[in-house]
User: Fold these one by one.
Assistant:
Number 1:
Amino acid sequence: GINAEYGAIPPFQHYFKQINLSTMKVQALVLLTIISFAQGGILEAATFEDIQKQELRVRTDNDCMDIPHPNMASDCLTTLYKFYHELVDDEWQECKSYTFNTAPYTNHYCQFLYTDRCIKDGLTVANANKGCCRSIHCHSYMKGITYE
């Protein structure tokens, strides 16, 4: 018959319609990572933090890293602000290690930071690091997101 809560859809099918495929990919990766560590006999060598970092790399590689900062959703901006240094280069500092003045922030200025201070060819690692962090900070600020 018809279920009052789910209409004509049986409860188990309703549940499967709401599964987020992106979440499933991440969960599958974590499971495969754990299985591969266990099969190799090195599960003890992998910390939970290592698995989280790998999960973060896959999630951001698929969802955030290829999106220009001006087009990023709030969750990607926040993820990159917190973890950019782990995703890009071992020499990068955390974005929170910089202090940025928000007074000049406008959409145009944020775009300038992205194109000329973050992705421009020839930037040193230190300059790209600070420029990309400032770009993320600026775009976040313009969306009402602030970091402490």
Number 2:
Amino acid sequence: EKIRMIKSPWLKAKELFSSSCSDLCTLEALRGKCKVLHLNSIAEKELHTFLADSDAWFYLLSYNPSSRRLASTQGEIRIGSSHQASIASCPVVHHFKVA
């Protein structure tokens, strides 16, 4: 359900990108207060309520202005031998009884 909702054009229109950039603006430029949540913090049963709230926004990706790239805000798990650590074989340890 959540994956299907993410592809929804109504939900995509509410997507923001987090960034470490900051900007100064005059008080007159502010239009009000809104709520910004990470998409994973929105429960599936709350998605319809979230969509109906005109002051609710979400983010999933972060924008890095120096590299001009979007990146995941969560860690990634990559599968495949090129993404795995190589572990040296462990020598056999012999246990001896002390008399």
